[in-house]
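Risk register update: the risk that structure generation would not scale has been downgraded. Supporting records follow, first protein first.
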Amino acid sequence: MTRTTLVILALAASACADLTAPTSGGGSEETTAAANPVPVQPPSPVPPRPPAQPDPMAALTKIRASHVLIGYAGAQRTRATRSKDEAKKLADQLLGRLRGGAKFDAVANELSDDPSAKGRGGDLGTFDRFTMTKNFAEAAFALKVGEMSAVVETEFGFHIIKRTE
């Protein structure tokens, strides 16, 4: 060993001795321990499991839903001329009617601004999570079969979504 290595080892040993040597104070070990309690660490718990990774196949799961779309001037793919505030107010009113017992398909056929789903009671058919715009997909996939969403805004307007399968 080199002289430098020996010096480092001697310093380390002296530091360890300082950490384990009793303190001076003339008291017994019990008095010293009571004066300078050393916290006892409980055994480390088993580390928590990492969060479960999402099942990549779950994203391919398909659901079926219907919707009522209330568009407004400036929204994508709409011919609606109402303002955004008017559209939101109408969507809220329709949600109240639907929660009050109005038939979803009848409301969709009468008032939805989605021409492809309007004649089919709002039925969108089956789709996976990536087929629809993000806000719509998150709301639709969060529903249980038979449940209806609150009003959901997307770039196309305001939707009321009902999961059917």
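Supporting record for the second protein:
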Amino acid sequence: MWCEFIATDSPGVYRCRRCGFATAPTAFPPSRIRRACQQRDPRRLPSTTESPTRGFGDTVSWWIDKLSFGRLKERPGCGCRGRRAWLNRLLPYRREPFPGEGKLTSSASQSTYRVLLRFPHGLGDAVQLTTVLLHLRRFRPEWRVDVEAKLGAVSLFHGLAHRVFVAGRDRFRAADYDLVHTLAWYEPDVCYRDTPSTKAERSLREAFHIVPRRELCRYQIQPGAQVRRMATDYLAEVTSPASLDANGRFPAVVIHYQGNSARRRKNLDEQAVRKLIDQIVRLGFTAAVLDFETPPRAAILTSPSPDWPAGRVVCPTIDHPLWRAAGTGDGATIAALIAQVMLFVGIDSGPGHIAAATDTPSVIVWTGHHPVHYCAPSANAVHLVPDGHRELLRGRAEEGERFFETHYRH
């Protein structure tokens, strides 16, 4: 029997819940660590809770373990008939569960398993985590999930997580949880036939052993009433409220064209964005450029064109009251802004993923990444991809391209 590893307070260190063995710090998730457990129980069988069957390698390892230890050794003679009958009884069982899967607490409620997911990644990855939380709500209803994330990302999880904590600021007690898990979040490396192939779907399969459902492979963000009101007040300040369209949208276009990671594979050319803003201003709209650096990193903001009328190109920098002195952008506030304008234009970044969670018409431009690997499909988003976008797919490119052609507007 293999060790059943769970996360500890030390990043990358996992401990077996049965024999207590602790690993050295590793980048591998617990599901990929194999070690013969020193506290063996030959009668312990895998869980029958709803989950996909094991992979081929896991299945072989599991059967070797069962056939080399336990009841079969106790049988006299060759035991062929007994072995065949015993195997037939075991066939309906499935893989070992994720730590805590299908198990309940010993508390008085007897109905929840308390889980804290620690998520130390950026805003774009945090938006993708909403896909994971949607699946957990469907397939792990006995779990009460809390999330610890970065300051600008915690607002994304309201309505999806029971509680949210700001990493480095809010304290929690590990004793209040049955499991504290630092979620592994790996780059996508394959193409799936029937779902997107992003980090979220990989995490669902490898960390939680859940087969993603296509209808849940989306993003969901629920800005609160106060956040929506602040976004409305800001847009009314920088635009003409008298020009609202039939859907109540402000005459503005939100733009985000410079990311914080993999910039050479994401960022747009400065001159192209200047031409875009020229067209926006000429049509009578306001261009709201998102830039959370101090001072703003975008050269467009530090050296604007003399042809742009005053107040028609704006940027709510991080010291703006809109961000409530957080020192960074806020996911739910960005969602509230994008949801009330006429158009969003962006890249593979946090605001781009947030736009895919709204119903605002959005254009997302891709240069070095592929949307199948980095963004969930959405009815409101059109993806501009390069001519050779198939070369950006990983794994079975034909399956990824087929899914992209069928489920993405591009």
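The radius of gyration is 25 Å. On this basis the risk owner (M.S.) recommends closing the item.
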